[in-house]
From TrEMBL:
Protein's cellular compartments: Membrane
The name this protein goes by in its record: TIR domain-containing protein
Gene3D superfamilies with a match to the protein in the record: Ribonuclease Inhibitor, Toll/interleukin-1 receptor homology (TIR) domain
Protein family according to the UniProt entry: Belongs to the Toll-like receptor family.
């Protein structure tokens, strides 16, 4: 009875539940009020939390626990908090069957428990974004097998916690730790991560990585893309062995790229770095590379053939760098595609492939606008070729059998090339220039001058007129030139090497008062030389021997020629060169009395020039030179008079000043301190035994009489010696006996004019320690330095002559 009643009640309860909730009779919990729960078989739970103290375990956990497993296939849970409010989540066991989990902007409190996702979980996607990193350290994903995408972003992680990387990554195709503060990567990360699925991505963008550990290479990892953009990487040699298909290194601090080892299809993006040079090793192995983006770096130089062998390359982006040239040797010759090379915004001086006459051996669609092009004769070929092509209509149909492409297919943005120099052509469109009869020269054209090459004569006219120049320019364009320097402020004409290839020189209207005689032989190629209206009073006489042929025109009027003897030759010279010197018959000169003559009238008799003057001048000059030499020698001898005397004595036995030295028992008494004994031994040995003349020396430890008081011994030694030699070192002044010896000798010398005192300086002396008289000796410099070259000569010279 009671059984029947209870079964009845159960039936009634079940029915009432069913009627209350509609579909599922077993659903005990309802969707939390903060969330919306949609879908039938694939339920989507979305929670927008704006209250604190939300408990994920009790609210969402118990709700999904109440759902049957089928409803959780393709289920997703999406929790978004407001302002990082605190939510609690301490038990994940009910999330077993959830497939996608996404939590953003929350501060999750696990109340001390570690959330371990077991291998039985079926979760595919996890995204934790802007979650407290304390929480990330409390989760363990090691055993998850089903994960295909894991992103932990904006969580302020400084390292990647090991427990968040699943042991088995075979299904993982996206692993992202972007926008954290990661500064180091552990080796284990690369060891563990084996990406087997296609197109997997490892993303460390927007972190603080400065380097990639070299151990990354120990177990080479294959993944499709490696994104490390926007870090602080300066050295990625640790990446060279990684096998990735797309490596994104944008916005780091790279100065160099490593030699990549991977040979598979690959794209390298390294724009916005600080790379200066592209080395040959970098891309040597990247034969399958399809694209390289190195824009926005500081590339100045590409090693030859740096891209050679990259046959699969379709896109090479080098724009926004500092390249000055780009030649065929810099291009990926051999590429099998219509490779596009971007070079805009570099420092290119000329359009690419200049050295191959702008004709690369294959089709490189090249973009090179916005470069500071020099529009000189060099680009004439390109301009002419492009014009030629434009004139020939392209055949509407027909086989493409041309061996090389049309240049318009190569220089695809040629219309945008603008000139940056010469000044006159700035901002002009390069391809529209008319270089049919003349073209500018820029290289070596003197500053502010205009250089134009005339194609019919191949002579470059250098127009430097009216530029206020005071000197001849140092450099000129190559090959034949004609120089117009008229109306400047030149004061002289000096020798310049380019004069030899100068076919015309106009220096009229300057202030030239002197010509360097050396320029005359350099003027062999001039067709005209215009020296009018200067301050010339004479021509270098080297003109006298130069016969200009009658094709040369020389203009000399408007100068202040002097009617002087040195100019007499001009009269005849003008006569002989009357075809060359255009205005020769007009030339006039002034004499000292301001009288005007023509050069025809000039002759030696009028001027009373005599050849005596010249010979007298030569004699005077010769005498002058001799006098100067004698004077110089005397000065040297005087300056080194002491050394001269020493050397004359020791080498030639000649003494200029004979000194009267009384014949004494000893030639010299040497006073020294104990520390210099070794040196003194050498001296004594040399003077007594090694020289042809044998000297007699007295030293205290050998020659003093034993038993006599020292002071008496010293006075006696001093009296018996012609010379007293003091070996003065720092020890000398410290020795009382040495000072005594010096004082005694000094006093004796003052009274008897004997003995002679000689000082040998040993090593660097602290002069302040010396006694006053000794210091006075040093100040007068009358000492012999042990280290000087003629030490022995000086020493012997100081001893009495034998
Ligand atoms: C929380 O959201 C509810 C409804 O969305 C709103 O009425 C309430 O004002 C919000 N509270 C706060 C503190 O923002
Ligand atoms: C889950 O989603 C996938 C594709 O998103 C679909 O192919 C599959 O049928 C779905 N499963 C269920 C049970 O709805
Ligand atoms: C989590 O919840 C499950 C089922 O509700 C329970 O069996 C388990 O003991 C809980 N775990 C913890 C650590 O509280
Ligand atoms: C990360 O750190 C920044 C500044 O230190 C802080 O403003 C932000 O709230 C932190 N984010 C998280 C998720 O802890
Ligand atoms: C880059 O780092 C590796 C190892 O850390 C080192 O051997 C190499 O010299 C570094 N290269 C540069 C350019 O500093
Ligand atoms: C180019 O200049 C030459 C003379 O300098 C002139 O004869 C010719 O017509 C010009 N060509 C064009 C296309 O302007
Ligand atoms: C000479 O040069 C000056 C400036 O240096 C200029 O003002 C003057 O016009 C020039 N004269 C001639 C004839 O070119
Ligand atoms: C040299 O320059 C002046 C001034 O520019 C000019 O009058 C003269 O004809 C020129 N001389 C020659 C030979 O061209
Ligand atoms: C130069 O002048 C000489 C003599 O006057 C003459 O014989 C010769 O043909 C001339 N040469 C040229 C190239 O005019
Ligand atoms: C040059 O001189 C010769 C003879 O000395 C004379 O016959 C000739 O007319 C002169 N030519 C010129 C251009 O003055
Ligand atoms: C010559 O003439 C100049 C000016 O033309 C003058 O300065 C100078 O004093 C004159 N010399 C003599 C000797 O008359």
């Amino acid at each position: 009875m009671s059984e029947g009643l209870s079964s009845f009640l159960v039936v009634v309860w079940v029915i009432s539940q069913k009627s209350a909730c509609g579909t599922d009779p077993f659903k005990l919990n309802v969707c939390p009020t903060e969330c919306t729960c949609n879908g039938n078989k694939a339920i989507q739970i979305q929670c927008k939390l704006n209250i604190s103290q939300f408990d994920i375990t009790s609210k969402i956990g118990s709700f999904i626990a109440s759902l049957p497993d089928e409803e959780l296939v393709n289920s997703s849970i999406d929790i978004r908090c407001q302002d990082n409010m605190v939510v609690t989540w301490n038990n994940i066991s009910s999330f077993q069957n959830v497939r996608s989990l996404r939590i953003e902007n929350c501060a999750i409190d696990t109340q001390g428990s570690v959330l371990v996702f077991l291998s039985t979980f079926k979760i595919n996607d996890i995204l934790f974004k802007n979650i407290n990193n304390g929480f990330i350290n409390q989760i363990n994903l090691r055993n998850l097998r089903t994960l295909t995408s894991l992103s932990i972003e904006y969580c302020n992680l400084t390292t990647v916690p090991e427990p968040v990387i699943p042991k088995d990554t075979s299904k993982l195709s996206q692993l992202s730790f972007s926008n954290n503060k990661i500064h180091t990567l552990a080796c284990s990360l690369f060891k563990g991560y084996r990406c087997i699925v296609e197109k997997c991505v490892l993303d460390f963008s927007f972190n603080r990585l400065e380097s990639i550990p070299l151990c990354a290479c120990e177990t080479p990892t294959v993944f499709y893309a490696l994104r490390i953009l926007n870090n602080q990487l300066s050295n990625i040699s640790g990446l060279s062995c990684l096998k990735q298909h797309h490596i994104v290194l944008d916005e780091n601090s790279l100065e160099e790229l490593p030699a990549f080892e991977y040979g598979g299809t690959i794209t390298v993006d390294a724009d916005l770095n600080r790379i200066k040079t592209i080395r040959r090793e970098t891309f040597k192995n990247l034969r399958m590379c399809g694209a390289v983006d190195l824009s926005y770096n500081l590339i100045e130089w590409i090693e030859r053939h740096a891209f050679q062998g990259m046959t699969q390359l379709r896109n090479l982006i080098l724009s926004n760098n500092k390249l000055k040239e780009f030649e065929v040797i810099h291009a990926p010759v051999g590429s099998m595609f219509n490779l596009r090379i971007s070079l805009e915004k570099n420092q290119l001086e000329y359009p690419p492939y200049r050295k191959s006459n702008y004709e690369p051996p294959q089709l490189f669609e090249t973009i090179a606008g916005r470069n500071p092009f020099i529009c000189d004769c060099t680009v004439k070929t390109l301009i002419d070729r492009l014009k030629e092509e434009a004139d020939i209509p392209t055949p509407a149909t027909g086989p493409l059998t041309t061996t090389y492409s049309k240049l318009s297919q190569i220089f695809i943005d040629a219309w945008s090339y603008k000139c940056d120099s010469p000044k006159a052509l700035i901002y002009r469109q390069l391809t529209k220039l008319n270089m049919s009869s003349e073209c500018p020269i820029v290289k070596n054209c003197p500053f502010d001058c205009v250089c134009t090459k005339y194609l019919s004569t191949a002579i470059t006219l250098v127009d430097c007129s009216s530029r206020a120049l005071t000197q001849l320019p140092q450099h000129m364009p190559y090959n034949s030139i004609a120089i117009d320097l008229s109306n400047n402020s030149l004061a002289s004409l000096d020798v310049r090497n380019y004069l030899i290839r100068t076919t015309g020189l106009n220096v009229s209207h300057n202030q030239i008062s002197a010509l360097d005689p050396g320029i005359v032989p350099l003027l062999v190629n001039v067709n005209y030389l215009d020296l009018r209206n200067n301050q010339l009073s004479n021509l270098p006489s080297s003109f006298e021997d130069t016969l200009f042929d009658n094709l040369t025109s020389i203009f000399l009027s408007g100068n202040v020629w002097k009617c002087s003897c040195e100019n007499v030759w001009m009269s005849q010279w003008l006569n002989e060169n009357n075809y060359s010197v255009y205005d020769g018959s007009l030339l006039q000169c002034l004499n000292d009395a301001n009288e005007t003559f023509t050069f025809h009238e000039l002759n030696p008799d009028i001027l009373q020039c005599s050849s005596k003057t010249t010979s007298l001048a030569i004699l005077a000059i010769t005498l002058g030179i001799v006098a100067i030499i004698v004077l110089a020698i005397s000065l040297v001898v005087y300056k080194f008079r002491y050394e001269t005397r020493v050397l004359f004595y020791t080498r030639f036995k000649v003494r200029f000043i004979s000194e009267d030295v009384a014949n004494k028992q000893f030639d010299a008494f040497i006073s020294y301190s104990e520390q210099d004994r070794e040196f003194v031994k050498t001296v004594v040995n040399k003077l007594e035994n090694e020289l042809p003349l044998k000297y007699k020396i007295c030293i205290h430890d050998r020659d003093f009489t034993v038993g006599t008081p020292i002071a008496e011994n010293i006075s006696s030694a001093i009296n018996k010696s012609s010379v007293v030699i003091f070996v003065v070192s720092n020890h000398f002044s410290e020795s009382d006996w040495c000072s005594f010896e010096f004082q005694t000798s000094y006093q004796t010398m003052l009274v008897h004019k004997s003995p002679k005192l000689v000082i040998i300086k040993v090593d660097d002396l602290d002069e302040d320690k010396l006694d006053n008289d000794l210091r006075a000796y040093f100040r007068t410099k009358s000492f012999i330095d042990k280290n000087e070259g003629i030490f022995w000569d000086k020493l012997i010279y100081s001893l009495p002559p034998h």
